[in-house]
């Protein structure tokens, strides 16, 4: 009986230690997000074919959306809505900037992305690049993106992408301040962008 109690207390101690470590890691991660620029350094290509890095996300408050050109609903809807919110909050287009980063660089070349984005907005800039570099950037920005085959029997055939659908908001120093969720109330989304201008 005494041996059983010792084993149980040892198990409790191990679980408590594990929970403590997990809490520490989560807190440290949040502190890291708040302390410095969001994401990781990267070198990709804008829709005009020009090099672009994480430095583009500083100097002005920034809205980031991750998606792809073959997206049936979420991406075109979000781009259209984001463009409208930007025009409402910053009519002159001088205070806020926005980027659309492809999660499907295999199909979304800078040229393809440029045509897609420019059909919806002149305020939003597309970003793509070499697939491996794009995926490193996506992972570093804590964005979920996964290729989903349209036919499970043909894993190398046509596919779609499952991905994070929120708009990320960064202040003028590139620090994370919040998100606009897909389907967010328009008035709430506009208010978040207005608040972003004050950062």
UniProtKB/TrEMBL annotation:
Classification via SUPFAM superfamilies: Thioredoxin-like (SSF52833)
Q: Which keywords label this protein?
A: Copper
Q: Does the keyword Protein biosynthesis apply?
A: no
What positions does the domain Thioredoxin occupy? 33-198
- The transmembrane segments are none
Family statement: Belongs to the SCO1/2 family.
- Protein name per Swiss-Prot or TrEMBL: SCO family protein
Q: Lineage of the source organism?
A: Bacteria, Pseudomonadati, Pseudomonadota, Alphaproteobacteria, Hyphomicrobiales
């Amino acid at each position: 009986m005494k041996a059983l109690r010792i084993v149980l207390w040892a198990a409790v101690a191990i679980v408590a230690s594990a929970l403590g470590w997990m809490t520490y890691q989560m807190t440290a991660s949040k502190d890291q997000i708040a302390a410095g620029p969001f994401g990781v350094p990267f070198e990709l290509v804008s829709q005009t074919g020009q090099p672009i890095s994480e430095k583009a996300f500083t100097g002005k408050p920034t809205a980031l959306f991750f998606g792809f050109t073959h997206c049936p609903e979420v991406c075109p809807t979000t781009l259209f809505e984001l463009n409208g919110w930007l025009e409402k909050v910053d009519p002159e287009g001088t205070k806020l900037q926005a980027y659309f980063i492809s999660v499907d660089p295999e199909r979304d070349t800078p040229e393809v992305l440029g045509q897609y984005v420019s059909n919806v907005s002149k305020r939003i800039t597309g970003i793509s690049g070499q697939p491996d570099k794009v995926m490193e950037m996506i992972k570093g920005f804590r964005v979920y993106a996964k290729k989903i085959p349209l036919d499970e029997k043909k894993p190398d055939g046509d596919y779609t992408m499952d991905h994070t659908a929120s708009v990320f908001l960064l202040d003028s120093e590139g620090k994370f301040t919040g998100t606009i969720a897909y389907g967010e109330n328009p008035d709430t989304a506009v208010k978040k962008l207005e608040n972003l201008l004050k950062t």
